[in-house]
């Protein structure tokens, strides 16, 4: 019946959804304040996965009676704690960073020279590159210093005003380049 799609089985169900929403909202707010700005920064693949998982637990907890509110709060608190622990371990143990993060990859080098092997590894086409160059208001690819796909999947265009100028090596530290030597 159409009312099953619009109305809950009992009037108390709406009140419970409201209370669960407030409970989960306050939990996430307090945990985000405790763990810091990085909580939803999406700086690594792991951060993105945790953000999605927190959203999933939030939605499931507020829209149904299973899991119970306290279980949802415990799950979210555990995810925040794991994320905080992983971010600290990444800072102190270099090998741990490699296990949780994707490293950036160079898609285009100085003078707008495309890196075909890198593009294949990153699964990026020439059309994708053109789109990002247009978004960065690049009118001449010769002024491109580098195009980098970050570990999060975002693509950044580094362009200057000098043709063929290479980006400073510090900026490209840790960026993979399968077409040539390490960037």
TrEMBL record:
All residue ranges annotated as the YetF C-terminal domain in the record: 93-174
For this UniProt entry, what is the primary localization, expressed as one broad class?
membrane
Q: Does the keyword Oxidoreductase apply?
A: no
Per the record, its GO cellular-component terms are: plasma membrane
Family annotation (Pfam families): DUF421 (PF04239)
Where, per UniProt, does this protein localize?
Answer: Cell membrane
Note whether Cytoplasm occurs among the keywords: no
TM spans (from-to) = 12-32, 44-62, 68-86
Keywords attached to this entry:
Cell membrane, Membrane, Transmembrane, Transmembrane helix
What topology in the membrane does the UniProt record assign?
Multi-pass membrane protein
Q: Which PANTHER family match?
A: UPF0702 TRANSMEMBRANE PROTEIN YCAP
What is stated as this protein's family in its record? Belongs to the UPF0702 family.
Q: What is this protein called?
A: YetF C-terminal domain-containing protein
Which organism was this protein described from? Answer: Tranquillimonas rosea
Q: What is the lineage of its organism?
A: Bacteria, Pseudomonadati, Pseudomonadota, Alphaproteobacteria, Rhodobacterales
